[in-house]
Amino acid sequence: HVEWEYFPRKDEIKFTITTTNTESWTGIGFSDDQKMSQTDAVLGWVEKSGRHFLMDTWIGGYTSPLLDTSQDIYNKTGRIENGATILSFVRKRTSADPRDYSFTDEKCYYMMFPVKGGIFNPVNKKIRKHQAIPNISAQRICIRSCGAGEEITTTPEPPRIGYNVAIKLIQLGQNYQAPAPGSPDFDLLANTVSDGFNRALVKIPGFYKMSVKEFQQESDNVIAKLSLELDEAKLERGRSLEDSQESVVQVLN
User: Fold this and answer.
1) Which pLDDT belongs to residue 157?
2) Where are the membrane-spanning stretches (predicted)?
3) Could you tell me whether strands 221-231 and 66-67 are parallel, antiparallel, or unpaired per DSSP bridges?
4) Each residue of 195-233: b (16+ CB within 10 Å) or e?
5) Are residues 164 and 135 located together in one domain of the fold?
6) What is the value of pTM for the model shown?
7) Which pLDDT band holds residue 141 (cuts at 50, 70, 90)?
8) For 93-118, what is each residue's pLDDT tens digit?
């Protein structure tokens, strides 16, 4: 089942998802028409080791969910307790991300709950199709603004070091053109690039995330402009910034 709390002072919503199917992924989806296609979804799981994972996704059709370029969920938690997987996250009620549905005082959405998701791969973060049809609310759910209330206590993010990285993409096909931001082709290529580099860059001490900012066309080549973030406190003790930058280059090469 799913529970949610609204915190008006910061206009945030905290969702808590509970399922007894601990071997599969779970989550929650927001739909404008009770159909799986064109659904804003947050999916995740908890491994047997206790490590949890949550991702902000968009389901464009009856295919695998696409990871949002902008991950607009935070204060993520996960655990297995009394034979149940319990996941929680916080998101803003409204969002500037076109892949996130915004709850407003006028706009409400149907909610989807995957009672029994499919198998998940904790390494590459890929998921299989759900094993049971998700439950869908019979009516639209409204989360409207109200007066001041209690705030969620948040943990300040650690200081981070940022790098701008440009990568030439090859073997994209003859006459391939850089996709426009916001297009399905952009999301597909951005997800592919981000997923590949995020898996490679976990070798770097303090790695936080790599995200795609844009694609540029240069003659017959497509250049990916990326943003790399490292947690400063987790960098190896005594390691200089130049050494870290050299490691980044080695991994990318």
Assistant:
1) 56
2) none
3) unpaired
4) eebbeebeebebbbebbbeebeeeeeebebebebebbee
5) no
6) 0.62
7) very high
8) 998 888 899 999 899 999 999 888 88
Count of C-beta atoms within a 10 Å radius of residue 190: 23
Per residue in 214-252, pLDDT tens? 889 888 888 989 888 777 766 554 354 444 444 444 444
pLDDT over threshold 80, residue 62 = no
User: Do residues 185 and 179 touch, judged by C-beta distance below 8 A?
Assistant: yes
Q: Mean per-residue pLDDT for 199-210?
A: 71
Condensed to tens digits (0 to 9), the pLDDT of residues 118-129 reads 889 888 888 888
Q: Are residues 54 and 110 in the same domain?
A: yes
Residue 95 C-beta-side C-alpha neighbours within 13 Å = 20
- Looking up residue 108, the CATH number of its domain turns out to be 2.60.40.1210
Range of the domain at 193: 160-243
Q: Higher-confidence residue: 251 or 2?
A: 2
Q: Which two tokens stand for residue 45?
A: 């799981």
**C-beta separation of 154 from 75 below 8 A:** yes
Establish how many alpha carbons lie within 13 A of residue 112's alpha carbon, considering only the half-sphere containing its beta carbon: 25
Token pair, residue 187, equals: 């999301």
Residue 96 covered by a domain: yes
Is 149 part of a structural domain of the chain? no
